Amino acid sequence: MASTVKLFVYDLSQGLARTMSPGILGRQIDGIWHTGIVVFGNEYFFGGGGIEACGPGGTIMGQPHQVVDLGTTEIPFDLFMEYLEELSKTSFKGSTYHLFHHNCNNFSSELAQFLTGKDIPAHITNLPQDVLSTPFGAMIQPFVEAMHQTTNTEVTNFERANQKNKNMLRPEGINN
To answer: Domain named PPPDE: which ranges (predicted)?
Structure first.
């Protein structure tokens, strides 16, 4: 049975990036994007704590700025959960998070491709490089790198949650 796959897009700047970016960066950016993939009745996202899940729109950011329909998936729920568990132990552990190089948008891209064969919009995944290519971005990069070195942890919430209850994220009516 096919399941709908959506990309929830949040603007971490709450509109300030659109207003202030020309003066700070010398070019317009429309937002500072955080994304999550909504499938099987939950929203999945990645950050410094690893892979996490909540109800759609249930993050601390509230409702998304934009919802992008990525299509449907034929991937069974159990296979998806196995895939997430593997990612949570390898390429998407909390310790692998990096604001510019390995972030929530890279995770959403990975999940979108696994589930649908399609990627998320390029303007979202290209944003870090777009910012770093400006003089201001080049100036702040060493500070961000230093913060990354001191806050990198080994927390993997998804893996820990899975150890507690393998079925906690299973939507009603999904048996496989």
So the answer is: 3-145
